[in-house]
Amino acid sequence: MRSSLATTAVLVALTGAASAQDLQNSDRIARGRYLAVLSDCSGCHTAPGGQSFAGGLALDTPFGKILAPNITPDSDTGIGKWTDDEFISAVREGRGHGGERLYPAMPYPAYTKLSDEDARDLRAYFATVAPVKNEVIANQLPFPFNIRTSLLVWNALNFSSGRFQPNPQKSAEWNRGAYIVQGPAHCGTCHTPKTILGGDKNDAPLDGATLQGWFAPNITTNSQKGIGGWSKDELVQYLKTGANAWTLASGPMAEAVTHSTSQMSDDDVAAIATYLKDSGTGSTSTKPAPIAASDPAMKAGAAIYKDSCAACHKDSGMGESNLFPRLAGSALVQSDNPITLTRVVLHGTRAASTDGAPTAPAMPAFDWRLNDAQAAAVVTYIRNSWGNAAAAVLPSDIATQRASLAKAP
Ligand code: HEC
Ligand code: HEC
Ligand code: HEC
User: Fold this and answer.
1) What is the pTM of this model?
2) pLDDT, tens digit, 9 for 90 and up, residues 27-62
3) Whose CA is nearest to atom 11 of ligand 3?
4) Which atom of ligand 1 lies nearest, measured to the CA of 82?
5) Which ligand is closest in space to the CA of residue 58?
6) How would DSSP label each residue in 295-341?
7) Of 20, 106, 202, 397, which sits 20 to 30 A from 194 (CA to CA)?
8) Ligand 3 atom closest to 246 (CA)
């Protein structure tokens, strides 16, 4: 990608003064390249260790496995033969070559908000990407989900095509943030709860959702379940570096930070924060009463915490800024669905590494040290200490999580 820009520069140098049209084109390609970063196209279309945009990465959906296709301009195995309109229609309408319907594992329900100009810039950039021969058969779904016509019904129920509509009551910065979050950056693809058919629950945007064995927490300003306690600067720092005084990004969010948010311009990250800090508190649920410290699971949990956790996360649950996440007041720790929480404690994780913070600290795995009852107790303890309050996690929940992690790669 960088090389194609360099090629343009060389050509311009060879042919003397660039015409106004050449300059316009190279601007367009540069803007399109940045839009591919905002939209994290490579997050799915580049396989680990593979060539840029040559596809092959397997995505787990509730209905089965699907491979991201090759979207380089190779004319046999990529999209070299596609017209501009076909490309734009794939991105914004989920209609591929010859009108074929695409599965929403490609986030066109969010990209449909892209402006005409941004869609054209994106297209201009993708025409300059190096072509790679790599045959990918996207559809690996089992019957009946492998039948693309079933998407006709899905689309009718779940997809509404349409460009972003700015809110005239709000500032230009807020609207830029809303556009990025809802459109290119497709934050809701992971953070908005889904209906039984896998469509977005539009009455609960960014309220938190499970995906591929992770829980993407509530990122509304809800003060208990969401990130209401985060300042705008803390949010900016998290998106730029993957870490702040509250937490560190791991799993799919670490990837989103590495490939996308850490590479966004400062203005765009600030716009996202402005929008998220002023986009409502999501669905309000009443805070439960914390489980009493005298409860047997809480007592056992407190002892385990002191031995195994406090060295890093501190007795106060406050952690250490940018190194050890804060557990007190953490939305992740108190989330209704503790799947990310139990996964982190059993399996451990490593946080995102970014240019700003190259060596990421790691959370050790405890699956070999704690049995189901002990892991359940320590998790219940951190969910109900230092002002936190959330339902107990049971030994059977831990057993289920252990079994599913044993199957994971
Ligand atoms: C969350 C993962 C994901 C992201 C992010 C993503 N895609 Fe896709 N994309 C897919 C999957 C999966 C398919 C295959 C869908 C199918 O076959 O029904 C696909 C299909 C496509 C196709 C159709 C290709 C073909 O051969 O049919 C194009 C074009 C495309 N994506 C372009 C893009 C662009 C451009 C971006 C960034 C703006 C992007 N994608 C971001 C997952 C993703
Ligand atoms: C591919 C899925 C995915 C996408 C896209 C995504 N996120 Fe996340 N996000 C997650 C997951 C999973 C977590 C939980 C991981 C963790 O806590 O380390 C998370 C965590 C977060 C958190 C931390 C919340 C907390 O309480 O700890 C914030 C803030 C956040 N995401 C904001 C965003 C924004 C803003 C966008 C769009 C620019 C976005 N995310 C896009 C999956 C995603
Ligand atoms: C050696 C230091 C260390 C110890 C000991 C430790 N942790 Fe962690 N913990 C971390 C680090 C570092 C992270 C962030 C890793 C990441 O985000 O990928 C983390 C993340 C977490 C998270 C996720 C929080 C968030 O906001 O993402 C939870 C929950 C957690 N630890 C609980 C525990 C519990 C419970 C114990 C004891 C059983 C424990 N930790 C022991 C270092 C430690």
Assistant:
1) 0.80
2) 999 999 999 999 999 999 999 899 999 999 998 877
3) 363
4) 29
5) 1
6) SHHHHHHHHHHHHHTHHHH-TTS--BTTTB---TT-HHHH-SSTHHH
7) 397
8) 26
